[in-house]
Amino acid sequence: MTTVTDVLEVPARRVGVLRRPKATTGFWSWFTTVDHKKIAIMYATTALAFFVIGGVEALLLRVQLYGANGTLLTASQYNELFTMHGTTMVFLMGMPLAVAFGNYLIPLMIGARDVAFPRLNAFGYWGFLMGGIFLYSSFLLGGSAPNGGWFGYTPLTSTGLDRGFLPGHGPDFWVVGLVMLGIASTTGAINFIVTIINMRAPGMTLMRMPVFVWMMFVVAFLTLFAMPIVTAALIMVYFDRNFATNFFVAANGGEPLLYQHLFWLFGHPEVYILILPGMGIVSEILPVFSRKPLFGYAVVVFSGIAIGFMGWGVWVHHMFATGLGPVAISAFALSTMIIAVPTGVKIFNWLATTWRGALRLTTPMLFALGFIAMFTLGGLSGVLHSIVPADTQQTDTYFVVAHFHYVLFGGLVFGLFGGFYYWFPKLYARKLDERLGKLNFWTIMIGFNLTFFPMHFVGLLGMPRRTYRYDSGLGWEGMNQIETIGSFVIAFSVLIFFVNVFYSKTRGEAVGPDPWDGRTLEWTIPSPPPEYNFEEIPEVESIDDFWHRKYTEDEQGRLVRLPSGGAVAVEERTGDGHGDGHGEGHGEGHGIHMPSPSYFPLVVAIGLPIMGYAAVFQMWWLAAVGALPVLYGSYAWAIEPQTEPET
Length: 647
Fold this sequence. Notes:
Blueprint: H1 4-9, H2 29-32, H3 36-64, H4 75-110, H5 118-136, H6 138-141, H7 170-198, H8 211-243, H9 256-290, H10 297-310, H11 326-338, H12 340-354, H13 363-384, H14 388-394, H15 398-428, H16 434-460, H17 477-507, H18 545-550, E1 551-553, E2 559-561, H19 566-573, H20 600-617, H21 620-639
Antiparallel strand pairs: 1-2
C-alpha cells in the first residue's frame, strides 16, 4: 500500500490530477480535513476557548480572595474551580496551543508538504477535543467536578471503594480525562518526531533547522516519554478508587509518596514541554526584528536539548517537604541549580542577538522582550527553590504560585502571544493591528505583574496555597486586592487580543508573503499557503536560507539586498495557480496530489468519551458501545486508500 510519505514525495511529473468527492471547502470540510494547517487552526481555536474558560475560573478564584472571609464560593466550589483552572491551563490550553503552532509551522519551516501521518494528526485533535469535553462534562454528570487539585495527590484521591476524602465521580473524571488527553498528546508527539526526522527539505540538515523546530523536536520526545509515566499513575489511582487495590493506600500497605514520584517525574518535564515552544518562538522573532542572525545558534539548540535531558533529573525539588532525607534532597538541590545554566545561556544569547541590532519594536518583538524579562524573574525565583531550607518554608505558600506563573504565564503565554502576532499574516495575509497589539502588550504586562508579583510577598508573609478564605488582620488583604484588580486587567487585555483577531482577519492591513522580511522558509510561499505548501520542494544551503537568498554584505559588512532576491520571486508567484488564496488549491494543475480527507479519525475519537463514561460509572455495557466506533473507525481507517480514485 502507498504510504503517506510516498504520496507526499512522489515527483510532480508522475502524479495525475485527482478529483475527490469529499468536501474540501466549507463547514463540513473541517470535520474530515487532514491538512495540517486546518488542524492547527482547530487546535488553536479550541485551546483559546479553553483559555477563556480557565481565565473565568481564575477570576472567580480571585474575587473570592479579594478580601478576608470571602463568601462568593464555598470550600467545595473553590476546590473544583482551582482544580479545573490548573488542569485547563496545563492540559487544555498550554500544550494544545504549542501543538497548534507546531502543526502549522513545522512542515512550512522544514520544506514539507504535510506532516508524516495526516490522519493520525487529525485524530490527535479530535482526541484532545473529546478529552476536554469529557472533563468539563463532570460539572453536570460527576456529582462534583474534579476537586483534588490539578496534581491529584494521594491519598486524597485514592482511598478505596468508599472514595474516602473525595466522594463522587469528580476525581474519576479527572483521571480518565487525562488518560484520554495523554493518548492525543502521544500521537501528536510521534507525528512531529517522524515528520522532522524524515521530511526535511534537501539540504536541511539538523543544524540548519529553525530553532522553533528544534524546540518542538525536544518537546515531542519529552511528551513521548513523560505521558506514559503519568498514565500509569492515573490508572493506579483509578484502580485504588474503584477496585480496592492498594497502590497508594497507606493503611493497607500502599505508598502515597510513590504517586508524587510518578506525577512529578512527568510533571517537571511537563514544565519544559510548556516552556520550550515559547523559547523557540522567541528565537525566531528576535533575529527578524533585530536584523541579525541568532547569536550562537548551535549553543541555543544544544541548550534546549540539555534542558530536555536535565529536566528528567530535578523532579524531587517538588518534594523537599516530604522527608526524603538529606542525601536525596541534596542531590536534587544540586541538579536544580545546574539546570539553570542552559536556561541562562539562552537568555544571554537572546540579549546578544538584540545587542547593536537594528531593532524594530513591533508587537511581536515587544512580546519576545517581555518573555525574556518575565521568564528571567520566574527563573530566579525557581533557583531559590533549590535552597532546601528556603523551599521547605515556601513550598505551600503563594510564593510558589508566583514562581510558576512567572515561568508559565510570563514564559509560555507571552511567547504564544508573540507568535500569534508574528505568524498571523501567514495565515490570513493580513497583519494584526499594531495599535491594538501594543495596547494588548502593555495591559497584559501591567496586569500580569499586578497579579503575580505581590504573591511573592504575601507568600513570604505566610499565606498558604489552595486556601479558599483567610481571616482579617493577617496583613494579606491589601496584596490580595491588588492581585484581583490585576487579574481583571489581564482579562481586559485578552479581550483586546480577541477584538484584534476578529477585526484584523477581514479588515487588517493586507500584506504580501514576506511582511516582516523573514529568514525562514514559511515566508517564501504565498499567504495563506496553498494546501500543498510548496509547489516545488526547496533546496536549503544554509541556516536562515531565505535570508541569504535576499541579502549579501558589502565590503564594510553592511547588508545589501540582492537585485533578484527571493522575495521578488515569491511576489510574482502569489495568487498564480494557488487555488482560491485560502489554501484550497489541492494541487490540481500542478501535478501534486495530497492525502484525501477522512472522517474516520473523528469516528475513532467519538468512541473514547463513551468508553470514558463507562469507566467512570462502571457501566461496562457502555464500554462495548464505545468500542464499536473505535474498532470500526480503526479498521476503516486502516483500509481506506490514501487518495481516492479518479472520477
